[in-house]
Amino acid sequence: MEENRMGTLVIAEKPSVGRDIARVIGAGEKGEGYLKGNGYIVSWALGHLITLKEPDEIDPKYKRWRADDLPILPERMETKVISKTRAQFSVLKKLMNDNEISDIVCATDSGREGELIFRYIYEQAKCRKPVKRLWISSMTEEAIRAGFESLKPSQEYDNLYRSARCRADADWLIGMNATRAFTIHYNVMLSIGRVQTPTLFMLVRRRQEIDSFVPETYYTVRADFGDYEGTYVDDDGARQIREREKAEKISADVKGRPAEITDIQTDKKTEKPPLLYDLTTLQREANSRFGYSAKKTLQIAQDLYEKHKLLTYPRTDSRYLSHDMVGKVEEMLNRYEGALQEIGKKAIEYGITTRSRVFDDSKLTDHHAIIPTGKSASRVNLTTDERNIYEMVAIRLCAVFYPDYIYETQKVSTLCEGYTFLSQGRRVIQLGFKELNPVQQKKGKKGTESGDEKELPAVSKGDIRTCTKSAVKEETTKPPKEHNDASLLAEMEHAGRKIEDENLREQMKDFGLGTPATRAAIIERLIQVGYVRRERRNLIATEKGVKLIEAVPREMASPEITGRWEQILAEISKGADREAEFRQGIAEMAVKLVKNATIAPDVHFEPEERRKSGRVKQKTPSLGIPCPLCGKGEVAENRAAFYCTRFKEGCHYTVWKNALVRSGGPEINEKLMRLCLSRPEVRGSTGIIYTSAKGELKFVRVTPT
């Protein structure tokens, strides 16, 4: 090879990754959209450069959205260059077809979507040169060098590409046809997707469970026996008492009376250390601990991988390492610094053994679990958010080698005046891995009758105590909690477990909606199109989201069919000959959805104006009620609030839908708002909403007598 001859073209997914690779392989000379040197030229995509064509780019007749033109089922799915990134595609196309380039290295992200990004570019550029694949899980210099020493023929990843292409084509066919069909039928823009609609269904189902929930008041009786306390339970072990009079009688009967310990039960239990992080688990725990959205956690982890080189590839669904990484893991733990240094050394002392909960080649997917790379973090200027995520991953790598958490559960039954009181406690025998995150230790399982799980005093059966005091507590049954990123990600990940058919549920229990790499984007998409809104950490289905689920056929909303597809896609990526079956099923589903749209149920959506492009613009949804503040405009509604239609003229009347939630009141919907603006007070089961002359709302909680 001549000194300045460009022999091998390396194509990365992003410029930052391209620059890192170029630095390692010695390509330091700058060009227009690339770096070159040492026999290499390194260039990059900007994420996706190529996408599937829009329907009207396939045939101009599809520019108008007409029911008669559906379903749209192209014989061949055609691609196009994305206009915003056309310049960089031109750079790549020229380089790929340059006579001086003998071969190409695909260095896009090592996963299904990364494979698709490169193959789209390769096909669009009409390139025919041989390709090898760089497959790495870390962006450290050592990992990049090792990756270039073990490049594999691109053909070994053809199955992954087929799976990726099937996924992209399916999303287009379902999304385009269902969106157009239902938008035309209801005359309102309705975005429908293969994965996003079943995900929305989960949020709508939770909202309906909460809306239909009827709170019930009950009472508990708590007795103090001097050195421990207990809660009254009936013969069935239930602590809830429906009648206040009965609770008051029990409390009065036992106060000051002698009591006897009638039963003691102890049970030794062991909790093993948690598995290493995959992306979904990292997102869930970061949401629970720090309130980070799934999207934010993914971005932080991606920056720690690409920019700072501190974490391995984050878009993984594996929670295991390969057996050949034992020595590397010990080396990493030895490099821990600062506050992490001590726990790293402790983990090594406990033994970096090839235990199956950590090292299991059979449970590896395209990548191993997320772990630190071993690069020094003290020399990197991390933000607080980046530091939080990095330390979560670093501590988890230690935790898996720490001892089990061992404890003893204690149950003591005390009989007083014929009434049984149950006390529950927990005695820690070995803190084990829990010493790493004391704030994360479980505070006691739901339903703990004693109200806590403190260690109980040493007692013996037959011991006599005196009930020094007793008290009745009024409580109310609680509705299910709103979903947040953590709980929704968990339900998406295990969507197969919600399938009603028992045989199918068993087959698909490990299949979910989307992939770890796409779930955050699905959640954000639901928010973007107005089906879901965020309230603090919660994700709540909007009225439009609820109505969409009412409108689409149940099989489109159920995770079952999407789970089936995800299962087949996974099998295709592993070499199964199911591509034709998958494509046929998708085409049949597209046809069925179009037919279903013509007989869709009578669901009322807010009126919208259609634009020429086929998209729609929502009209101001006025309630037809005069504004109580200015008297000239009308009260209108948007996703978050009720407001005056004359806001542009200066009227500041606004009532946020969650304005009463903080004080214990309900979320305000259209029906409740109309009611409040028609009378000075509205009474409910838990309180009263007062409406001022200026339309301001105030909630006052009322305790039932």
Topology:
Layout: E1 8-12, H1 15-25, E2 29-31, E3 34-37, E4 40-44, E5 50-52, H2 55-58, E6 79-81, H3 86-96, E7 103-107, H4 112-124, E8 131-133, H5 141-149, E9 152-153, H6 158-186, H7 196-211, E10 217-224, E11 229-233, H8 244-254, E12 258-271, H9 279-290, H10 294-306, H11 326-334, H12 339-350, H13 384-399, E13 405-416, E14 419-430, E15 464-466, E16 469-476, E17 483-484, H14 485-493, H15 502-507, H16 519-528, E18 532-535, E19 538-541, H17 543-551, H18 554-557, H19 559-573, H20 579-598, E20 608-610, E21 616-618, E22 622-626, E23 634-637, E24 641-644, E25 654-656, H21 670-678, E26 681-683, E27 687-691, E28 697-701
Parallel strand pairs: 1-4, 1-7, 7-8
Antiparallel strand pairs: 2-3, 3-4, 5-6, 8-9, 10-11, 10-16, 11-14, 12-13, 12-15, 13-14, 17-19, 18-19, 20-21, 22-23, 23-24, 24-25, 26-27, 27-28
Helix pairs in contact: 4-6, 6-19, 6-20, 9-10, 9-14, 10-13, 12-13
Walk me through this protein's architecture.
This protein is α+β, with helices and mostly antiparallel strands and 705 residues long. The chain folds into five domains: 143 residues, 3-Layer(aba) Sandwich (Rossmann fold); 163 residues, Topoisomerase I, domain 2 (Orthogonal Bundle), CATH 1.10.460; 128 residues, Topoisomerase I, domain 3 (Distorted Sandwich); 111 residues, Topoisomerase I, domain 4 (Orthogonal Bundle), CATH 1.10.290.10; 80 residues, no CATH class. It contains 21 helices and 28 strands. A hairpin with a 2-residue loop joins strand 18 and strand 19. It is globular and about 95 Å long. About 3% of the residues have low confidence.
